[in-house]
Structure formats: C-alpha cells, structure tokens
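pls design
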C-alpha cells in the first residue's frame, strides 16, 4: 500500500508547472489549429492532381456517352425513315376496310337468319349468301393483309422504343455525371484560389520554344497548332477553338493538319499506330495512366502540350511528369 501511495502521489511543484505549461500549449494548438497548418502550394498541387485523376476518367466517359447518344439518334432517324412508308401502308389498308368487314372479323360470319331478313325475300336467299360469303372472304383477306403489315410495323417500332428508353437513361446519366463533374471542378478551383489567390497564375506556360523540334510534315503542323493554343482554358467535353479538354486538344490540332481523330482517349489510342519513345516525333500522342484517361501532344525534347484540368490552361509540360502508358502516331 505504501508503495502504491508513493508512486501515485502528486508530482512536485516544478513538474506540475511543466505539465501545466505543456497542457496549455496543447490546448492552444488545438484551438488555433497550429497543429494542422495550411498545406503548402506543392501539397495543394498534389491534391489537385490526385483529385483530377479521379475526375478525368468520368469526363472521358462523358465524351464516349455523348458519341454513343449521337449514334443512337442517327439510327433512330434511319428507322423512322424506314417505318414511314409502312405506316402509310397500314393507314391506307385500314381505310379500305369497310364497316361490314370489321363486323365479319369481330363476330364471325353473318347468320343465315340475318341474311334472310335483310333480303326481304326467301327466293333470293341462296344468291344473297353466296354474295355475303364472297364479300366476307375478300374483306377478311384485306384485314389479314392489314394485320401482317401491322405486325411488321410493330417489329420495327419495338427497337425504336428501346433506343428511346436507352437514350433517356443515357441523358439522365450524363446529367448526373455533369452535375458531379461541375461540383468537383468548382472544388478544384476553390482549392486553387485558396492556394494561389485569385490571379489565376499557373507559372510559365511556355518555358521553352514550342515546338522544341521540327521535322516537317503533318505532325509538325499539328504540333504548331497545339503550341498556338497555349494559355486557352480547359473545359471538359470541348474541342476548340476557344476551350479544350485533353482529347479535344489533340483532336483539334490534328484536324487542322488534315486528319480526323475521335473525341475519346481510348479511341485515339486505338486509331493511332504504336511507336517507341526513342522514335517519338512532334505530333505524336502520349497517353498516361493505366486506363489511358489523359493524352498530350508531343512537341519534341521530352515536352508535350496538353490540356491538364479545369484549374489550369493549355500548357507545355515534361512527359515524364505523369505516368506514361504508351505512344501513338496519327500519320
């Protein structure tokens, strides 16, 4: 018991004073937030880069969905054009069907008694029935033609209805993604303003001559066009001439050189020829990250021009600054 009391007794006055001072400092740090100092600009840049790597795949998927939606709308117009004559045929066939034929189709053959009563004379019964049977067969054949045409119409109308439903789902998904992306971009811009103020400065966008190298040909032309876009804003889903996203910039640059690229990084990878790093020339495309969600246009000397993200404009950057996935040559 004595030992216990010896070890748990209150500390001496100097020790108590030191504990009090340290406790006060801890409290002050907790209140003022000094323990969580504001991140440095380099740390903010890292946060922005990491966040953008989450957003950019969504943006590229957005580009893909827009292209698919446009393709579906074209198919829908083509099917509507094919159905228009059939619809006219159905309408015309129904116009030819008499009220009597409709009655025959719904209720079956007219009874002999009804036929006799409508003639007014039993002497003409046989002739009247013969006429009714011939008329019924003729009208029933017409109705069958109408039903066949209607079935053909429905068979073609079904896929259109399905496409319309798919498009509605795609549009809803696009709207949701766009809302999410806009929110993420706003957050990135807020981070940028907090770190660097409202000047929007991102440093030297063209630190060396652009293009760095010149070999002539369409690749050099594409590189020159890309260099001319330096300083223009990034806006996702755009392909110039005033704003760009990453695949929109490469598309625009090569379009001015006379070549067509599709607005999606994966498509641009598929549509280009694989080359090695040692064989890179201005105009070649450089793809980044495991899912190739980012692309830049090589301008020589280890430099590229790219549209990085919504918080930075089009600019030059060393290709080794991001994880390279592969290289592609347009022409």
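designed seq:
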């Amino acid at each position: 018991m004595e030992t216990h009391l010896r070890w748990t007794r209150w500390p001496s006055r100097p020790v108590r004073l030191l504990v009090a001072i340290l406790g006060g400092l801890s409290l002050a740090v907790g209140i003022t937030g000094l323990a969580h100092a504001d991140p440095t600009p380099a740390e903010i840049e890292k946060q922005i880069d990491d966040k953008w790597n989450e957003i950019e795949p969504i943006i590229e998927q957005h580009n893909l969905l827009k292209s698919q939606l446009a393709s579906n709308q074209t198919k829908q117009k083509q099917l509507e054009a094919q159905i228009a004559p059939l619809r006219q045929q159905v309408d015309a066939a129904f116009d030819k069907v008499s009220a009597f034929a409709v009655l025959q189709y719904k209720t079956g053959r007219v009874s002999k008694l009804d036929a006799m009563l409508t003639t007014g004379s039993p002497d003409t019964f046989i002739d009247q029935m013969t006429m009714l049977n011939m008329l019924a067969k003729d009208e029933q054949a017409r109705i069958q033609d109408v039903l066949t045409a209607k079935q053909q119409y429905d068979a073609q109308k079904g896929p259109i209805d399905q496409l319309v439903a798919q498009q509605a789902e795609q549009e809803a998904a696009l709207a949701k993604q766009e809302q999410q992306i806009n929110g993420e971009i706003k957050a990135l811009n807020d981070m940028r303003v907090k770190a660097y103020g409202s000047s929007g400065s991102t440093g030297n966008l063209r630190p060396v001559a652009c293009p760095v190298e010149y070999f002539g040909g369409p690749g050099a032309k594409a590189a020159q066009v890309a260099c001319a876009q330096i300083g223009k804003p990034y806006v996702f889903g755009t392909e110039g001439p005033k704003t760009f996203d990453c695949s929109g910039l490469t598309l625009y640059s090569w379009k001015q050189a006379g070549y067509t690229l599709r607005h999606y990084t994966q498509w641009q990878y598929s549509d280009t020829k694989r080359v090695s790093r040692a064989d890179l020339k201005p105009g070649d495309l450089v793809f980044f990250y495991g899912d190739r969600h980012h692309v830049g246009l090589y301008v020589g000397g280890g430099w590229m021009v790219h549209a990085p993200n919504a918080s930075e404009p089009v600019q030059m950057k060393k290709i080794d600054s991001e994880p390279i996935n592969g290289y592609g040559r347009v022409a």
